[in-house]
């Protein structure tokens, strides 16, 4: 009986050792850093797979209400911090007829939401972020400054 128990313990230790090594391997591969998307790569002017032209971005920014601009700034802050989106963004229309999505982010002590007005391929950008295609390496201010650099808009 003692031999059977001892043998079973050794088999469990061997199994635990194997299981822990495979779990460690899986965790290491899951934590592989994804590529950063830069402000320059965000724009179609400099990247054929970009999401918005610089001209359209500046036009959109110039027409935002203060609240909308602040929410967009907070949105990019959450993206830079690699915060997780809570649910699949579903396009809706507000009272003014503007198409938007409501994005809830998972934070430690809550799930704040921001309203993002849709234009060009912003919805694709959000879905790609949610799919883990890239991490965001810019703020809204950085994006605005990049758009102003070589934009045709005066």
In short:
The chain has 154 residues and is an alpha+beta fold. It has 6 helices and 6 strands; from the N terminus they run αβαααββββαβα. The strands form 2 sheets. Strands 2, 3, 4 and 5 form a 4-stranded antiparallel β-sheet that branches.
The backbone outline, from C-alpha atoms, is: globular
In total, how many beta strands? 6
Number of helices: 6
Classify the secondary structure makeup into a structural class.
alpha+beta
Radius of gyration: 23 Å
The amount of helix comes to: 40-55%
- Sheet bearing the most strands, described? 4 strands, antiparallel
| Overall pLDDT | 83
Unreliable runs, pLDDT <50, ≥5 residues?
none
For the termini, the CA-CA separation is 87 Å
SS strand fraction: 5-15%
User: Would you list the SSEs in sequence order as H and E?
Assistant: HEHHHEEEEHEH
């Amino acid at each position: 009986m003692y031999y059977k128990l001892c043998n079973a313990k050794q088999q469990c230790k061997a199994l635990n050792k194997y299981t822990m090594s495979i779990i460690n391997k899986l965790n290491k591969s899951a934590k592989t850093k994804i590529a950063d998307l830069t402000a320059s790569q965000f724009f179609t002017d400099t990247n054929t797979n970009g999401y918005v032209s610089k001209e359209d971005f500046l036009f959109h920014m110039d027409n935002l209400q203060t609240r909308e601009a602040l929410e967009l700034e907070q949105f990019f802050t959450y993206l830079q911090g690699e915060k997780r989106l809570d649910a699949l963004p579903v396009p809706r229309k507000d009272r003014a007829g503007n198409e938007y999505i409501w994005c809830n982010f998972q934070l430690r002590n809550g799930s704040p939401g921001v309203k993002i007005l849709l234009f060009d391929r912003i919805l694709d950008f959000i879905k790609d972020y949610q799919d883990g295609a890239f991490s965001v390496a810019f703020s809204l201010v950085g994006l605005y400054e990049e758009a102003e650099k070589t934009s045709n808009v005066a």
